[in-house]
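ok here's Superinfection immunity protein, seq below lol
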Amino acid sequence: MPIFHPILVASLLLYFLPAFLARKRSDFTAIFVLNLVAGWTFIGWIIALVWALSSEQQRQVAVPAQPAAAPPPASGTSFFCSACGKACEAGARFCTSCGAALPATSR
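and the structure came out like this:
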């Protein structure tokens, strides 16, 4: 009698079929443990098989929306703040970004 009887090998392959089918999934370890621990019960084996064959849900990652960039100011109507470097409208007394006092220009 051979050591690895064909019926024993076929039984082990059938027993671990859910784990084999789930080998490329991210939750393979959980399916394998369920198959190993509860696979001897018919219900545990069915649950592991259904879990292995179910489609893996794609994880939804929320990406914050980028605010639209403000159009560049028209030349001659704006200048840059000496404190923060942001564009300011001509005639403004304070920077709208940092609040620094702007130099007196022709207003």
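fwiw The beta strands are 78-80, 87-89. kinda neat tbh
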